[in-house]
Amino acid sequence: MAAPLVVWDRRMLGYDLGGDHPLHPLRWDLTWALAGELGVLDDYEVLVPEVADDAALGRVHTAGYIEAVRAASGPVPMAVGHGLGTDDNPIFPGMHENAALIAGGSIDAARAIAHREVDRAVNFCGGLHHAMPDHASGFCVYNDVALGITAMLDAGVNRIAYIDVDAHHGDGVQAAFYDDPRVLTISLHESPLTLFPGTGWPTELGVGAASGTAVNVALSPGTGDAAWLRAFHAVVPGVVRAFRPEVLVTQQGTDAHREDPLADLMLTVDGQRTTYLALRDLAEEFTGGRWLALGGGGYSPVRVVPRAWTHLLAIVAGRDLHPGTPMPPDWIARAAAARPDVELPIDMSDGTPDVVGYQPWAGHQEMAVDRAILQTREAVYPLHGLDPRDPRD
């Protein structure tokens, strides 16, 4: 099989919301630099994306919204509505072209997997999972995730499992496929009571023939590695096994990290790396290795995002990095020049075990995470013919 694909074009760094906006393209630039210096990119073929045209964007977004984004993208900012021009989603010159380029990358990678040209691909500049058909939301202009999944469906893939591990609910992707039984959407996120977008309750299940294909695990603030992994393994493999997907699509937002300023979960880079290993296991077991991995949130652009997504790239390629790998001197110099006020990491670990351990769920309700697990299982497991109280399911 051909080498995996990594989507990259420095023009994607033009998706810059400006000023002190938390979604800063530095996180993508430093990820590319770190993965390159550690030799991770040697295992990849670079896919230079095409700007998605209106026909491609229109598979998810309305014509009126696409035109509004284009109108707001000129050198003189224009108020156009559709969620654009807010603090979360400021308008900027070139917004349409840069957002459509990122979307084009996810579409191109999705088509390559659908047509069996490759088994695996990564677009860490993608994962913009909040954008809705007719409006921007949560820093996201075009929903490249939904567009990539739609491209796979259009190419003849019949069953796709989408797993979102961002701290925020993957609401835009869920909404896009809420009535489509061909797409299973799973999101593990901080509780809607405490975090944007305020959705992602266990009772959000999908409608009609798609009932049971939306799966939501709402986690309490303060959830750390072991509890998060307990929830993942208590819910995700069972429904994925029952659904029998042909392709796995994942969104790897890093904002569940304990240092992230916009969320309240407590994962480490090591816990996130362990999550990526679990996702790879799912792809190998259920989809013959076919896996499209996307980026997402993550607002610690120096200390967290580059290390987490470099581990992701290594794991997707099957060339795992040891967590104790030192940070390369050239990368340290580059990061220090960009953010001289930030204490830089010394290696690819947060000092927790190589593969983070957890206590499997046993059907009890001993901790807050156990209650979250049972709420999700009781809501969705019977719809897949599974026993919500049997840990073996």
From TrEMBL:
BP GO annotations: acetoin catabolic process; epigenetic regulation of gene expression
Pathway: Ketone degradation; acetoin degradation
A molecular function (GO) term: histone deacetylase activity
Pfam family, one: Hist_deacetyl
Keyword Signal found: no
PANTHER family with a match to the protein in the record: HISTONE DEACETYLASE HDAC1, HISTONE DEACETYLASE HDAC1-RELATED
Similarity comment: family membership: Belongs to the histone deacetylase family.
Name this polypeptide is given: Acetoin utilization protein AcuC
Source organism of the structure: Nakamurella multipartita (strain ATCC 700099 / DSM 44233 / CIP 104796 / JCM 9543 / NBRC 105858 / Y-104)
